[in-house]
Amino acid sequence: MRLLVVNPNTTETMTAKIATAARSAAGPGTIIDAVTAPMGPESIEGHYDEAFAVPGVVKAIVAGATAGVDGAIIACFDDTGLDAARSAVAIPVVGICEAATHLVSPLAHRFAIVTTLSRSIPPLEMLIERYGVSRRCRVRAADVPVLALEDGASGALAKIEREIALALREDRAEAIILGCAGMTDLAADLARRFDVPVVDGVAAAVKMIEALCGIGLRTSKIGGYAPPLPKKYLGAMADFAPRLH
Amino acid sequence: MRLLVVNPNTTETMTAKIATAARSAAGPGTIIDAVTAPMGPESIEGHYDEAFAVPGVVKAIVAGATAGVDGAIIACFDDTGLDAARSAVAIPVVGICEAATHLVSPLAHRFAIVTTLSRSIPPLEMLIERYGVSRRCRVRAADVPVLALEDGASGALAKIEREIALALREDRAEAIILGCAGMTDLAADLARRFDVPVVDGVAAAVKMIEALCGIGLRTSKIGGYAPPLPKKYLGAMADFAPRLH
Amino acid sequence: MRLLVVNPNTTETMTAKIATAARSAAGPGTIIDAVTAPMGPESIEGHYDEAFAVPGVVKAIVAGATAGVDGAIIACFDDTGLDAARSAVAIPVVGICEAATHLVSPLAHRFAIVTTLSRSIPPLEMLIERYGVSRRCRVRAADVPVLALEDGASGALAKIEREIALALREDRAEAIILGCAGMTDLAADLARRFDVPVVDGVAAAVKMIEALCGIGLRTSKIGGYAPPLPKKYLGAMADFAPRLH
Amino acid sequence: MRLLVVNPNTTETMTAKIATAARSAAGPGTIIDAVTAPMGPESIEGHYDEAFAVPGVVKAIVAGATAGVDGAIIACFDDTGLDAARSAVAIPVVGICEAATHLVSPLAHRFAIVTTLSRSIPPLEMLIERYGVSRRCRVRAADVPVLALEDGASGALAKIEREIALALREDRAEAIILGCAGMTDLAADLARRFDVPVVDGVAAAVKMIEALCGIGLRTSKIGGYAPPLPKKYLGAMADFAPRLH
Amino acid sequence: MRLLVVNPNTTETMTAKIATAARSAAGPGTIIDAVTAPMGPESIEGHYDEAFAVPGVVKAIVAGATAGVDGAIIACFDDTGLDAARSAVAIPVVGICEAATHLVSPLAHRFAIVTTLSRSIPPLEMLIERYGVSRRCRVRAADVPVLALEDGASGALAKIEREIALALREDRAEAIILGCAGMTDLAADLARRFDVPVVDGVAAAVKMIEALCGIGLRTSKIGGYAPPLPKKYLGAMADFAPRLH
Amino acid sequence: MRLLVVNPNTTETMTAKIATAARSAAGPGTIIDAVTAPMGPESIEGHYDEAFAVPGVVKAIVAGATAGVDGAIIACFDDTGLDAARSAVAIPVVGICEAATHLVSPLAHRFAIVTTLSRSIPPLEMLIERYGVSRRCRVRAADVPVLALEDGASGALAKIEREIALALREDRAEAIILGCAGMTDLAADLARRFDVPVVDGVAAAVKMIEALCGIGLRTSKIGGYAPPLPKKYLGAMADFAPRLH
Known about the structure:
Chain A is α/β, with parallel strands linked by helices. Chain A has 9 helices and 10 strands.
């Protein structure tokens, strides 16, 4: 099984960290192709950055599907471009927020997402509403920029630990989801330290795609994810939109 | 007051029709700048097309805000790029689905959206959930491609009328929202024919932006719509993402 | 365009303040007829007062519609008698809580209503549930009686400011709605002071009715707002119920 | 125990029928005082009629409480004036829609309300949303005016039976609530005929008030049902609003 | 009328206390048969204990129905085995959490449940979601084991009082539900002390069953509560499952 | 990795079929221990049967955990005893309804569950509400008893096909979940025939447990799934409740 992991944040060190996490989570027969999105902002912090990351994510996933990967993962916690990618290909595609909420569900009644900046709380609240867990989940921000997670000296870890402690005490969270792909290397230590499940979305997504591919499940092609219709394009975007027809 | 109306569908005849509708709805002191998005697909039918329309919509709205317009309207019924555009500028920005659901709310307990293709039903169901009217609204598709609305001989009107009749009879709808910017010229006749409110999103959005601007209300700049942070970009998208800093 | 603004609180100084706010919000071609309800309590603080204010509100709105106004506004934040008034006339009718929640929606993900007494919180929570924004909105009370807002020396402003500060800090509110028609004169200063959108329902309702009337939208007359059937009345209420037939 | 049953519909024959049903449901030690509201429309069919029935209902309930009844029932299925009456007195007050939804809940997963005219569906849908059963309940209208229920030759019964049959077959209803006080005499026969629980709101409310009074439960007087504050009144309504202070 | 009250907690002193409360609540013509479940754990604190209490509860209720009782009450606040018992018999069956939420609903907009251990909060949150009151109710735990309530020297009362005080102040609760059958003897004193309605589920359930039986309402036998089909059993459970056929 | 699959229906041929499906879904390094619950009814059709199946399911899962399995699956679509089992052990435990709803979520906006008898629809509707997918999922019954699925000549397949066809046409389902462990052998053929994802819960649960175990995620042991406290038992149930202390 060959899986594509796309990092929508165009920062290579972050992609390398994600690749390591994905490979560590992958089963023995799974090959991980980790790529940085071919275009877009260095980090995604809120609605605006997401908009300009989507075309690169879709392009990368269509390229992967054409090259024969069996499933694809979008490794940014706002699940950048998820519906568009899913429409474009038949292989299963999951986002890391989506995968984390699905895998934490059987482990805990209530849980909390600890993300980076507070501006990301509203988009994540929309996602958990969509994924059906809003009654069980609170979103917290550690006030850590995404790229500070690439810098060991930033003090990010302490801020994340503080929010986890608050979530366990004040929100009655029974488990924690790390709300940024850049936190992927922290999950194991935090789980030991707090003695509760700490879910990293990258690992969760690898396992969820392995699960889907392992039993031959692919995206439905009737309804909202029907294959895109052929379209004429105006301007440069024609060069970025994958040629599907 | 000067308002920008952006057509995310890059089809000039459709923009012209939208411009006419917007000017017809506008108050005496309102100037309408109607533009076609500078890049993207000719029509937006589902998640995939939307993804490649967003950058052009944001670019056009940032350009408009820089040029001094007082508010902006996104004239595609999936409210293409709404959150990203809203984050990028301080002027109010509304989508036509959003505006239509807000303006129909005081007129009817239940209502129906009649859109184009069935693949657009799921994205619109997500929108009405977000806008808080899902319990009161059903989404129906007339099985009419967006660009068929530009073609008088396509039989589109009859199909739309059939869905309206079904909505009134089977869904207990008390009012109708036309679920595509390309239907903007049909509202008045359909309202007369069926004797219920028929809301065109383009007209609704013009009035909603006039309302917000008229009393000095602008987008909140704390929280989820805080101004985007400066970012380095990889690849061509840097040319399309507006320079905000 | 001629709009009727009815103050359900039968306090003339409050009506004068509302009239000023409504005229200030109105567009150039809009004439505001501001009236005090012809009967009812001096102020509306909770369910009981509302019950005895409704007949006067409906009477005033039917009188206005008969006299030819184009739309009507109910200027009390519990949207006193809204459904009854809407059933009685064909012109659009909006309440100030309703209008404020619709106009704030495109400006902020989360917001708070700051109202007068805590006994009004439950009725307002029912309204925001109905208007579809309960997930995004918290209702707070400043512990200020309605008529204290007519008295500059009451210390009301400081109490309102305290609740706004709490809403921004503790509720992650990105915008504020003033939850009483008597606060209409405070919006502009509070918006400047806190640098977030502060929505006054009176102004919002004027713009919302202008929006509806401007594009010819009126209340649906099928379903729940169908014209009342002729009825015999027992007792004095017959003199107060408008003769619709 | 002495209970007041107020018929908000000012039609004496209907009050007599309600009194019979209430007495039939009442326990051995319960005395039923059944009164017609002292003012208001002969029947309540939709939002408008309700508005002019409320003051009479509140007046009657305050008079009853002053005279020493132990609890009060509002015998119209739109629960006319429920919150206002509850605020005005300390004795428990229930509406017949409210009581029916509470008593049917332990008997069936899904149920249907069969009411009179379709214009009453939206107000009842708001009530079942408030009472927390909207996911389990569908509201149907038999197209029978309220006062046709007073006329044996109206064909009303056959229309009601038709809707019950549809509810059992199409809505998977496991029980039926009769959605008008005027249907109170039909419950027993319909239950036999369809062999499912058929709940009459009048009987349900008598038992629910007996339950509350039997264990000394009264309305909370903090929060939304706090005693009304003294108010000056403008106009004739002062004569109708009970003097509570 | 003869009612069966089953204590799923197999602790006789607790059953005696429940019996006293039930008899105190019962109407003059009501005979209370209070029994301890014939098998199961001494107290029910969380999901696991509940699982092993259910067979005994169902067995006791089927035995009661066979012996001719008119209705049955499950006197543990997690409503142990409610749906199974309801399927097995035609007489009405209610749980004490269920009954308490129905009876408190007409008394207060918001309320709180004060239960024993925090591990019981998640199961109770599932129940209030099911009963339709989750928006109005918060569940709090006093950190008191169930059997500590049988021990006057345990300090349990002070802990319960502390949570009630917090609920009134922080949750805007207008009424309190005692979240354990073992608290049944505390309701009257706590109601006096805090001057708000304090609902004991045992008393509430007695009155609710009296209400249902009093007007001849029984469980619907179509749909989810249809009589169980005859089944072969493996192993010892065959001895515990009542013979229904 | 060693996984325990427990069939709560005590029918060996069904367990054999489930074992085959589980092994077919399992990854190369996964060993499947498929067991029939040691006691309980031969098939589970509704609330009542479920109650008497739970003790055996919990017993089997505790035995498995003691013997060292890495995760456990409850192979009945009502997720029999899920919360109790999860509390009793630290290894992850999933139900097949739960697993199917999580795995279908990334594949389709809307989907339908096709189960056996209509009496199972209400319990399944409670489950999908809990799992957060009720807005996206409709439950249908094929009117097929569970054990008819063990009999090739029962005509069950044709009835299931008919409901799938209806779900695709009338509910806009984009994918199908088979709502009984006994249908596990039908998924592949039905997926081919209807050309949409058809999810078998047994296979889904195997993959979901493999996913959780593969990245070291286990049930949270704070909050609602905290280890059961030691308890004295009355009667025979003491022999069935696993000794956890």
